[in-house]
Design the sequence.
C-alpha cells in the first residue's frame, strides 16, 4: 500500500536577499517541498549591499496578503528594517536562518570590519521569533560574540542581549537533497564499462560472463584485474575473492565502490566560493609544491565566482593547466556531481565556514575529505579527516598522490545520512508547524 504525503504549506513566505549557493539551495528546496509557499528573492550579487539595502526593496516586492502566517528569511536580511517598513508582517511567526554569522567573519584587515553587518544581525535576532543556525558552531560563535561586538560602541552599551536571544535559538543542519549515487557511479553502467576495456581485458570480461559471479562482482573483479598485476579467481566459488595477498569480501564487492575501481593520478577537488575567506592561497600553494616535487595529480576547481576574484585563481589556472580536469562554476548540478564522483579527495582550507555544503556533497559522492581542524569541521568530521597546519595538509596530499589506491579503498566514516533531507524533514515540518496528512 502506497503512502501519499501531503505537505500543504499555504501561508509560508520564503525570503532570500542573496539567492545563490547554499542560500538558493535551501530556499528552492523548501519551496519545492512546502507546496503553496511564496518565494521572494534577489540575485546573489554584492552581498554587502544586499545586507544594507535589501529590506527596502523587499518591502516593496512582497505582495500584501492576509494568508501569510510564517516568514522565513536568511540572516542577510535586516529583519528589523523589513518589519518596520511592512508592519503587516510583524504578526507573522518570523524565522531567521543563519547560514553564517557576521560577528566572527574573517576580514583581511581589522579596519575593514563593518560594524553595521553584525549589528544588523543582532537587531534581526531581537525581532525574530525563532532563530535557526545550521550548526552548533554557528550558534555558539554568534551568541558568545554579541557582547564583544557591542563593546565597540563608545557609550550607551545595551546589556543582557545574549540572554534575550538565546532562548529563541536552535540548530537545524542544512538539509542535503541529493540524487542517487548510482546515477553518477561509473560502475553502475556496465555497457560503458565494457567499451572502455582493451581487447584483452574485454576477453577476460567475456569469460566472466559465463561464470557464477554477479554482474556487479564482475565489474569489480575486471577493473581490479586492470589495475592490479595479479591472478584473480573469477569463478566466485567462495565468499572471498583473492587478489594477490589481499582479500575482497562480498561486502566490499557488492555493491561496488566506484572509487576503488579507478585508476590514474589522484583527482583533487576544491569546490568553494572564490573569495578570500575560503583561503584559496593555502590550497594552491600546496598544489604548486606537489607540482614542483614532480608528483602526478589532477585537479578540479569549482564553486561560485563573483565580480572580483582573488588573483591567485588566474595564477593557478596558468601554472596548473596540465593538471586541470574542470575549472569554474558548474552551471548544471549534474556536471558538478559527476566531477565529485570522479574525484578522490575534497579539500577545504576555509577561514570562514559554519557548515560546508560542498564538502558534505563531496563525501556523499565518495570523496575523502581533508578539512582544517577549526570552525565547524570538528563538529561534523572525525579527527582522521582534519589537519592542523598547511604543512600537514601538504604531507597528506603527497602521500595520497604517491599511493592513490589507499584513498580509493578507504570507506569514509562520516555519518552523511544525518544531513539528508529525508532524515531532517520532520524537524522542518515542526519549524513551520505544518502537519503531514497521510493517506494509506
Sequence:
Amino acid at each position: 500500500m502506497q503512502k501519499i504525503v501531503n505537505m500543504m504549506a499555504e501561508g509560508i513566505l520564503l525570503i532570500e536577499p542573496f539567492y545563490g549557493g547554499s542560500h538558493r539551495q535551501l530556499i528552492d528546496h523548501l519551496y519545492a517541498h512546502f507546496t503553496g509557499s511564496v518565494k521572494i528573492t534577489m540575485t546573489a550579487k554584492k552581498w554587502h549591499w544586499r545586507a544594507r539595502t535589501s529590506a527596502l526593496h523587499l518591502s516593496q516586492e512582497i505582495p500584501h496578503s492576509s494568508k501569510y502566517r510564517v516568514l522565513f528569511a536568511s540572516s542577510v536580511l535586516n529583519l528589523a528594517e523589513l518589519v518596520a517598513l511592512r508592519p503587516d508582517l510583524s504578526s507573522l511567526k518570523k524565522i531567521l536562518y543563519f547560514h553564517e554569522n557576521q560577528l566572527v567573519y574573517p576580514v583581511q584587515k581589522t579596519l575593514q570590519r563593518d560594524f553595521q553587518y553584525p549589528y544588523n544581525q543582532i537587531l534581526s535576532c531581537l525581532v525574530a521569533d525563532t532563530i535557526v543556525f545550521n550548526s552548533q558552531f554557528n550558534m555558539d560563535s554568534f551568541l558568545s560574540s554579541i557582547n564583544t561586538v557591542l563593546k565597540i560602541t563608545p557609550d550607551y552599551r545595551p546589556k543582557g542581549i545574549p540572554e534575550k536571544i538565546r532562548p529563541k535559538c536552535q540548530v537545524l543542519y542544512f538539509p542535503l537533497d541529493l540524487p542517487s549515487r548510482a546515477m553518477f557511479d561509473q560502475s553502475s553502467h556496465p555497457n560503458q564499462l565494457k567499451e572502455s576495456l582493451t581487447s584483452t581485458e574485454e576477453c577476460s570480461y567475456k569469460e566472466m560472463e559465463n561464470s557464477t559471479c554477479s554482474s556487479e562482482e564482475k565489474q569489480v573483479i575486471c577493473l581490479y584485474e586492470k589495475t592490479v598485476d595479479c591472478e584473480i579467481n573469477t569463478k566466485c566459488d567462495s565468499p572471498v575473492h583473492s587478489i594477490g595477498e589481499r582479500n575482497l569480501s562480498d561486502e566490499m564487492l557488492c555493491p561496488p565502490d566506484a572509487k576503488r575501481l579507478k585508476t590514474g593520478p589522484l583527482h583533487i577537488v576544491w569546490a568553494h566560493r572564490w573569495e578570500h575567506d575560503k583561503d584559496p592561497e593555502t590550497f594552491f600553494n600546496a598544489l604548486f609544491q606537489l607540482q614542483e616535487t614532480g608528483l602526478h595529480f589532477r585537479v578540479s576547481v569549482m564553486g561560485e565566482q563573483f565580480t572580483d576574484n582573488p588573483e591567485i585563481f588566474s595564477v593557478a589556472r596558468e601554472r596548473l593547466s596540465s593538471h586541470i580536469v574542470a575549472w569554474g562554476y558548474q552551471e548544471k548540478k549534474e556536471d558538478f556531481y559527476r566531477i565529485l564522483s570522479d574525484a578522490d579527495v575534497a579539500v577545504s582550507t576555509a577561514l570562514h565556514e559554519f557548515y560546508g555544503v560542498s564538502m558534505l556533497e563531496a563525501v556523499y559522492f565518495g570523496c575523502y575529505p581533508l578539512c582544517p581542524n577549526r570552525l565547524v569541521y570538528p563538529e561534523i568530521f572525525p579527527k582522521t579527516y582534519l589537519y592542523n597546519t598547511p604543512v600537514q595538509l601538504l604531507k597528506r596530499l603527497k602521500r595520497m598522490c604517491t599511493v592513490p589506491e589507499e584513498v580509493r579503498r578507504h570507506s569514509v566514516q562520516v555519518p552523511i545520512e544525518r544531513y539528508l533531507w529525508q532524515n531532517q524533514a520532520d524537524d522542518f515540518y515542526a519549524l513551520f508547524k505544518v502537519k503531514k496528512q497521510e493517506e494509506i
Remarks:
- The chain has three domains: 4-177+422-439, 181-260, 264-419.
- The chain has a mean pLDDT of 82.
- The domain at 264-419 is CATH 3.40.50.2000 (Rossmann fold).
